[in-house]
Write a structure and sequence with these properties.
By secondary structure, the protein is α/β, with parallel strands linked by helices. The chain is built from 12 helices and 10 strands.
Length: about 350
């Protein structure tokens, strides 16, 4: 198959109620037929596969991959293995792309909750057309940055709709900007990657991902996409942000990040943080020019030590005293040596390769 500019990877499990709407938003984008759209059906037991197959009959650039249920990370990795694009992007099956940064407006939220947002051909059978909130240049604007910069990662913005507490939140860039590999700029954009909470609403140069053998870690139940995004930023020489490319992210009560069992939720988040910070610090520790950033993230990690100590064996939790260190660059003291040892143990015990 000829190499295409962009591969759009959509993992889905039992998504019959929303996969049509997601694909509709993708197909409604300018130039959509030129992109490779890969839907990875992760062992769905409902009509997801049939719905995608029906849509694919009229859209030859949609590829359906069926796999046994192995989780979202395995599905994303499978999609990347079968992709031909120079760049890849990820979309959750219950989200849509191409909205204007007007979603704070009460009218948008009310209409959206009522199912009145119609996109393109309306595979999800919405009742009303609200064109003022929709755009068709989501992919175009992200790809424009790839053609005019040397960035390996391009960030767009998102609007989060939380159905659990009726809350809407924006994460929108006000300006187009290019972050270099300068340590100070790398620190800023790495913090951006951390608070984005997702690998979505971005595109990635696949050559860069292959060079660094970057995939989603499959045994992480939470934050695996945050870690992927942070490592991609760390490896990239340049990262660009785009102000006019907005993704609508739906947060539902039945997702893992909205677990109702507080104890179970706390433990899963604690484990995910131990995993994420340990991998990130392991990547930073051998990069002298990022020594100050290593120390900064080590202190963030250590600040969580008290909470983790009650949930996991002490040797796997960060050292709770490290964040009190006054040094801007981590030295070779006993605490630093102990922390480095714990990072290796965390990776060995929590993230088997």
């Amino acid at each position: 198959m000829a190499k295409q500019e962009l591969s759009i990877i959509i993992p889905v499990f039992n998504g019959q109620d929303y996969i049509g709407r997601c694909l509709d938003s993708v197909l409604n984008q300018s130039g959509a037929q030129k992109h490779e759209i890969i839907v990875v059906n992760d062992g769905s037991t409902d009509n997801t596969g049939k719905i995608v197959s029906k849509i694919a009959k009229n859209n030859k650039n949609i590829k359906l991959i069926n796999q046994k249920n192995m989780g979202v990370s395995a599905a994303r990795n499978n999609g990347m293995r079968h992709s031909y694009g120079k760049y890849v992007t990820f979309i959750d099956a219950d989200d849509i792309v191409g909205v204007k940064a007007r979603a704070f407006e009460p009218a948008f939220y009310e209409e959206y909750l009522n199912g009145n947002l119609l996109i393109g051909n309306g595979y999800h059978y919405a009742k009303t057309i609200l064109p003022d909130w929709l755009t068709t240049n989501y992919f175009d604007n992200l790809l424009y940055a790839t053609r005019h910069t040397n960035a390996d990662v391009i960030f767009g913005g998102k609007v989060t709709v939380n159905f659990g507490n009726n809350h809407v939140m924006e994460h929108i860039y006000q300006n187009d900007y290019i972050y270099t590999s300068d340590p100070d700029e790398k620190t800023i954009i790495l913090n951006h990657a951390d608070i984005r909470e997702s690998a979505n609403f971005a595109i990635y140069n696949k050559n860069m991902l292959r060079k660094h053998k970057l995939n989603f870690i499959q045994n992480m139940q939470l934050d695996e996409d945050m870690l992927f995004c942070m490592l991609a930023v760390l490896y990239s020489d340049q990262v660009a942000t785009v102000k006019d490319a907005t993704y609508l992210y739906n947060r539902h009560e039945n997702t893992l990040s909205n677990i109702t069992d507080t104890t179970d939720k706390t433990k899963k988040f604690a484990l995910a943080t131990i995993q994420r910070y340990s991998v990130l610090l392991n990547e930073l520790k051998n990069k002298p020019k990022h020594a100050q950033m290593f120390n900064c993230w080590m202190k963030k990690f250590s600040r969580q030590g008290v909470k983790y100590a009650n949930l996991y064996p002490q040797e796997f939790a960060p050292h709770k005293c490290a964040f009190e260190c006054s040094k801007s660059v981590c030295g070779n003291c006993a605490v630093a040596r102990n922390m480095r040892m714990q990072i290796c143990e965390n990776i060995t015990n929590h993230i088997p390769r």
